Fold this protein.
Amino acid sequence: MSHAGPSAAQRFYGRWARLYDVLASATPGLARLRDLAVDRLDLAPGDTVVEMGCGTGANFPHLRDRVGPSGTVVGVDFTREMLAQARDRVRREGWTNVHLVQADAASFAPREPVDAVLATFVVGMLDDPAAAVDGWVDSLRPGGHLALLDAAQSGRASAWPVDVAFRGLVLASTPGDRSGFDDPPWQVLDERVAAARAALAERAVDVADSEHVLGVVRVTGGRVP
Ligand SMILES: C[S@@+](CC[C@H](N)C(=O)[O-])C[C@H]1O[C@@H](n2cnc3c(N)ncnc32)[C@H](O)[C@@H]1O
């Protein structure tokens, strides 16, 4: 979640990969939200799904469950240490059809069109989230699905304490030097999440949006015509 360039984000996530893995896998309620996002992909056994910014692979169990042993899961991330955690998970589980790629998710394009693309807690880190979403949509086969799971300020009057806590969390988890920001990082995050969701809504049909945790968490999914 940053204004910082890729190297600052990579250093940040590189340093915190182990702790991130624990939080990403064990935070109460998060597994249900991951499941909800994966539901939007409408996966079937044998499908191929790409997860952009897969981190330590906390979504892999949900994705692997849906595509089964005959399907394929590809996790893309640019932070070596996050991928190392993901690789440990894949090895522990004995999955042979979960593959990892170290690459920039903003420009990564699979060789063949895929059935689904997932990005969870990632678009807020991209300089041009709308362009990334466009590229992800382009990588889908006709009828393929894209789903986004993100956190942003709720904006609901009744949720102000949650928004205050959220701003603190964004500040603490923003990579790089925070002193040179023009705008507060939570505002940038809100704008990026909104831009990504708008890009998805523009390119997809049957778009389904839902809000959770007092409006702080959003799940958006759609199908490419
Ligand atoms: C907040 S973590 C989310 C990880 C995972 N999606 C999850 O839900 O637990 C963000 C991840 O996105 C990765 N990331 C951020 N920008 C990226 C980019 N441009 N290309 C590839 N990975 C990126 C970071 O390395 C990090 O692992």
Q: What stands out?
A: The longest strand covers residues 140-151. Strands lie at 48-52, 72-77, 98-102, 114-120, 140-151, 205-212, 217-223. Residues 1-5 have pLDDT under 50 and may be disordered.
